[in-house]
Amino acid sequence: MPITIKATLINNNDKKPIANTSVALFFYQHIRGRVRPVQVAKGTTNVKGQASFTSSTEVGGFLPRVLLKAIVNNKWQNLTALPKTYTAALIDFGSVNINTVQAVSVGSMRFFGMANMTAAKPAAAVDTNKIKLIENEKTALALQLKTVNEEKAKHLAELNLKKKEVEKVQTEKKAQQEKNKTLAERLAASEALKETQRKELLSVRADLAGLKGNATIKPGIESLAPGKNPKLATTSMKAEAVYMQAVKAVNKADEKGESEGRFRISDVKMTLKVLSGEKEDEVRLIKNANEFKVIQPEMLSVIEFNLADRGNARPSAGEANDAPVSKMPKLTGYTESMALRKLSEIGLRASVYQQQLSQEQIEKQPNLAGQVIQQHPASGKNVTNPNDISLIIGVFSGES
């Protein structure tokens, strides 16, 4: 990419533009173990003292040190090494003030006594003018030094700002990398769950195929009069979601009965039957209750539960702690609320923990989610410490 160089040369003595003079840009480079300026571009100022020229030299990741020179009084003179704008595509030095009047050197002199002469007065006047010129040059140099210091402070501020921007970009990049890593982990977990659900669906389809092959059970649709082929309105759901909603519905009914009704649920048995879905991990449920009349009862899901009177089943907290218990009941296979209720009926309490089910467990027993998979003490063991009872509930990946 070519680099554009811009500068405006101003005569610091009369504040007029310096026209038709050569201007050159140099890059400092290592040559034979020393840093030397090397010319990379050259141009000429116009009547307004403006110079705009290009260089085909390309810069890398770091911008090199630069130097601007111009021909002043028939000699190349170093102007400035501090551009106002410096990028890989543009180097703009702005207005550059140049002293065109050469400094005058006053040598040391030794005076001897001599007669008064009127001719010495013009020489003294000349010396006074030279000293005044030197003072003006000194003032101009002081102003130029002040300008250089101001430009230096400005460039340092810009450098600090760019440094902060780079740090911000690096922080954002690191945060994005962490986010991408998390998304990749979630995607891997999702793929594993998808594979598990696919295997569960294959198992459900195999069960459905077995039901269709059973001569004693005929689907309700086949029992309709000839020529009728109604299309059932269905809704698709994840196979896992059907089971979890059924468990949640039973738990909600149990909690509502506990708080408002006279009876509580003592045990539950669920037989869930569904239609195959269009996707491998989905099943279909009948959407309109009026269409159940075309389905035979053998094809419907069943939830059975027994009720017990609340008044005679649950002792108070004080009575529960004092009630003598000798054997631990069998709680594996119960839902969390049913297991806690069974313990409460005999005056015991338990600490509940969750454990993510392995893929092998899900493949063998998909209904383990939401059930007690381990208990302590074991079934039939003596309860020596009522406060040392724990239940472990199985959960699907991502639910714990």
What does this protein look like?
The protein has 400 residues and is α+β, with helices and mostly antiparallel strands. The chain folds into three domains: 1-99, Immunoglobulins (Immunoglobulin-like); 162-312, no CATH class; 314-400, Trypsin Inhibitor V, Chain A (2-Layer Sandwich). The chain is 34% helix and 26% strand. It has helices spanning 120-212, 239-259, 317-322, 336-345, 359-364; strands spanning 3-11, 22-31, 34-44, 50-55, 66-72, 75-80, 85-86, 90-98, 234-238, 263-271, 275-276, 282-286, 302-309, 351-356, 372-376, 390-395. The strands form five sheets. The protein has a four-stranded mixed beta sheet, with no helix packed on it. Strands 3-2-5-6 form a four-stranded antiparallel beta sheet, with no helix packed on it. Residues 111-121, 214-228 and 312-321 have low confidence and may be disordered.
